Amino acid sequence: MNTFGRRLPGVVYGGDYNPEQWPREVWQEDVRLMRAAGVRLVSLGVFSWSVLEPADGRFDFAWLDEIMDLLWANGIHVNLATPNAAPPPWLATDFPETLSVDRQGVRHGIGSRGHLCPSSPVYRDRSRRIATALAERYGQHPGLAMWHIGNEYHSDCFCELCDDRFRTWLRQRYDTLDELNHRWGTAFWSQRYSDWSQVHLPKPVRGWVNPSRELDFSRFTSDLLLELVTQERDLLHGITPDVPATTNFFQCRLTDSHRWAKELDVVAFDCYPDPGKPDAMAVAAFQYDLMRSLGGGRPWMLMEQAAGAVSQWKNNQVKQTGRMRLGSYQAVAHGSDAVMFFQWRASRQGQEKFHSAMLPHGGENTRTWQEVKALGNELRTVDEVATARTAAQVAIVWDWQNWWAVEGCAHPDNAFDYRDTVARHHRALWNSQVAVDVVTLDGDLSPYRVLVIPNQYLMTSQQSAAVRKFVADGGHLVVSCFSGIVDEDDRIVEGGYPGALREVIGAHVQEFSPLPDGATVPVQGAGHSALDGFSATASRWQDDLVTETARPLATYRGGHLADRPAVVEHDLGLGRAVYIGTRLDDDALEELVRHVLDRADVLPVHEAPRGVEVTERRTETSTYLFLLNHRQDEVAVTLDRSGTDLITGRQLEAGETLFLDAADVAVVRSTSAAPRQAEPSSSDS
């Protein structure tokens, strides 16, 4: 597989560059400042279709020739985009069927981006045509480092073309109409189809929708958009076989990035944590762990971030001094070999003119520019970190298909937020300073000692068997409520809740008992349990939980389920499962997670005060310890190893105290050793 590291060694630095928005006299100034800031790579042409092809079949590459040569003459590589994310006005005017249609049947107009029908033969043909022209013209250009296919794919469409493709997709998936009726449960509410012509995309209905159809529409949309990517990838690889190709992910509900990542040479991600939210950097850490894991542990690219404030939220707070640097190193600490931004020069016009940039409207005299320039030059001191891997003994499950299902039907709690739920569970691990991979239950679980499954409502029989094997083989499981409820067709797994996990948790749920908004119930550790002294607050959800072969770890201490189990523990084979039948407060969830980590003998990567993030990346010869101070004050960290701080060049000794200012970072290189492991505890022997 092609990798960007072969063409771009070290930690790549740069951002989106849109020279077509500026007169030529600005270009020389751009490259001068790029060199001053240590820029190595720019993403070029992402939204340039209307400039590259001002009319159907009439191309203008002169300006792109000039800028490609100018960048390369200044030692700057190009991540060249196929510009299909924003079709030009002529395409919409000449071929209105290329415009997307919303669920209400309204065809979108031009004036924004992403207004494309992914099924349109004309759109596909013109996209491939310009991609071919770019590849043939610039495939041998020495400045070309990689291909950037499209941008943040997120377009769904409900037009007749997509309707036809949906039926074709369903025929390939189910073969017969009888099988479709069975899998969708169409006997409910008299929805049974008697002819394929009756099967359509989901559009507005009176009342509630069929959740199985909605689930398949989500799968179809992801597959349809992926087809656009793989067609262009194959085209580009055919012309430029040695040039890697990617597209940029963001946490989008429409695209199953687990599947997509397998089709790309490198995973790339756009991340915009909100400086106004206290948990923003914890959420970013989860997203970065996800990106690293999508690539099978290979390094990935932070393709976009903001140098300061964004402009798309209700209140757009700026990154305070040092926080852009801190967030950039956080991505590298979690496996990224690139730190890039949207965008290089702040736009004067358009929807994103108040979105921050590496070079702000105020130019070189701004704080942002000074920080951008300093970071670009400083990152060269950690170049040797590139290609180093992360080893994790803990995994957490994130599953797009579960996301589609758990938020796609009338449920006991219809305000459920899957992203927030997984992020809360990951935050408990993040605060525990352990390395975490983000997985699905379809992958290999054997490398892990601890597996955390947050609200995995949809679970196939193969997945439930994999969970059972994980525990029976000696793994430690944490699984939270409303998991193992339905199969891949959103059909209840029989045998009582949670049907797919009942044997694993050694208990069953008599009833789901959601709590009213704002209501809470106290939870305490069960007497003589391993959590004796545990105290928590439950909210939003309660399981009426009955133990079978499990034992209570904690019980409700109020409400109609008083003295009933809230958390249970179950031994299965060589391992142990902990089931959480409610939503615990954050501190209690973290305490419970630490209890499981201790039982599994999983140690922190390195001891550090709360608010200091710790990660490791490893090569065969070196270990790189990242210490990131997210606090607002100075902290002291007592080192457990000797090494060299790559950023300062300072030699450090084991037992020495390292002081980190607020928002400061250290990257300590030492000789590689096996990951820290605890001695087996007597309680588990």
Number of helices: 18
How widely separated are the two ends?
A: 44 Å
Percentage of residues in DSSP E strands: 15-25%
Helix content: 25-40%
Which blocks of ≥5 consecutive residues have pLDDT under 50?
Answer: 679-685
Q: Compute the gyration radius: what is it?
A: 26 Å
Mean pLDDT, as a whole number?
95
Biggest β-sheet, characterized? Answer: 11 strands, mixed
- CATH architecture classification name of the largest domain: Alpha-Beta Barrel
Structure description:
This protein folds into three domains: 4-87 and 123-156 and 243-385, TIM Barrel (Alpha-Beta Barrel), CATH 3.20.20; 394-599, Class I glutamine amidotransferase (GATase) domain (Rossmann fold); 612-671, Immunoglobulin-like (Sandwich), CATH 2.60.40.1180. The protein is α/β, with parallel strands linked by helices and 685 residues long. Residues 679-685 have low confidence and may be disordered. Strands 10, 11, 12, 13, 14, 15, 16, 17, 18, 19 and 20 form an eleven-stranded mixed sheet that branches. The protein is built from 18 helices and 27 strands.
Q: In brief, what are we looking at here?
A:
The protein contains 18 helices and 27 strands.
Secondary structure: elements and pairs:
Layout: H1 4-7, E1 12-17, H2 24-37, E2 41-44, H3 49-52, H4 62-73, E3 77-82, H5 89-94, H6 121-138, E4 144-149, H7 160-174, H8 177-184, H9 211-239, E5 245-246, E6 248-249, H10 257-261, E7 268-270, H11 280-294, E8 300-304, H12 323-333, E9 336-341, H13 367-378, E10 394-397, H14 400-406, H15 418-431, E11 436-439, E12 450-453, H16 461-472, E13 476-480, H17 502-505, E14 507-512, E15 520-525, E16 535-547, E17 551-556, E18 565-572, E19 575-580, E20 582-584, H18 586-599, E21 612-618, E22 622-629, E23 635-638, E24 643-645, E25 651-652, E26 657-660, E27 665-671
Parallel strand pairs: 1-2, 1-9, 2-3, 3-4, 4-5, 6-7, 7-8, 8-9, 10-11, 10-12, 12-13, 13-19
Antiparallel strand pairs: 14-16, 15-16, 15-17, 16-20, 17-18, 18-19, 21-22, 22-27, 23-26, 24-25, 24-27
Helix pairs in contact: 6-9, 11-15, 15-18
